[in-house]
Amino acid sequence: MPEHVESVELRGALLRLRRTTGLQVVFGGLLHDGRAMRIAELDGAVTPALRGLTISTGSGLGGKCLALSRPCAVTDYASSRHITHEYDLPVSAEGLRSVIAVPLVVRRKVRGVLYGALRDALPIGERVFDAAVAAARDVEQAFAVRDEVRELHARAASPGPSWEEVRQAYGELRELAPKVADPELRARLLAVCGRLETASGAPEGAPGRAPAPLLTPRETDVLAAVASGATNATAAQRLGLRPETVKGYLRSAMRKLGAHTRLEAVVAARRAGALP
User: Fold this and answer.
1) CB 245 within 8 A of CB 236
2) Is the dihedral angle over the CA atoms 246, 251, 253, 259 positive or is it negative?
3) At 99, is the secondary structure helix, strand, or coil?
């Protein structure tokens, strides 16, 4: 994913975090070489002290967050005994006291850190902590979706991509789409899924192709998961649904497709162009 696109996602999350929590300063950055991160996005700062600051893994609060891959917080940065103090000078210049750092983790790899801070030595409350973690999750989901789309395009451009690879990527995209908070990004993701569906065979109305049934988005999500070999329980876990709900969607899709088994439903959906 181009760096500027990732920066836009991070900037938007930081702005929303500051607006909804009352944090006085929010900032963040992305890893460049797997070990160091540069602070590139700030909002609420009154000095340039933090901008461009390079954070090394294990150093300071952000470095601790990078090393542990989990949120970390201090009530008074300068006096905390739980972090190293390589960055006390720029932190002090900005007047920051209470700071929280949340990692951005995609596919088990830390991609950056999101920070929020106050200029008073006050504990980070549960509401603010949860909001910071939620903001980080939004960024992670956006990164994951864009990674999937980029990889899908790369597969399509490579010589002889197998349909099984395309189908697997399609199923992963269908699972990610409902979790994306940004409506524009979610719509673009579903549009990519639609192109994959129509690219799977003859155009609609062509001889030998049945008319596409009117499957709901969730019915399609469940069928895509089933097509990948997922059980009802696994599909429920992936899609954030209850197993009984998955069964209901599957029964409804089978009825619309005139299928009597899960396999028949997948085959019928593919023939109709509802799945790649």
Assistant:
1) yes
2) positive
3) strand
| Separation of alpha carbons 272 and 121, rounded Å | 62
E-only strand ranges, the chain? 25-31, 36-43, 54-56, 72-74, 98-106, 109-118
> How far apart are alpha carbons 56 and 50 in whole angstroms?
14
Q: What is the pTM of this model?
A: 0.60
Per-residue model confidence as pLDDT tens digits over 115-152: 999 999 999 999 999 999 999 998 888 888 778 777 76
- Tell me the C-alpha distance between 99 and 75, whole Å: 7
Give the span between the Cα atoms of 273 and 211, in whole angstroms: 8
Q: Which residue has the tokens 């954030």?
A: 240
> Position 191: which residue type?
A
Which residue in 152, 47, 37, 45 sits closest to 104, CA to CA? 37
Structure tokens at 117: 């801070």
Distances (CA, A) of 153 to 1, 49, 72, 149, 161: 12, 40, 36, 6, 10
pLDDT greater than 90 at residue 112: yes
Whole-angstrom distance, CA of residue 72 vs CA of residue 59: 13
CA distance 64 to 208: 60
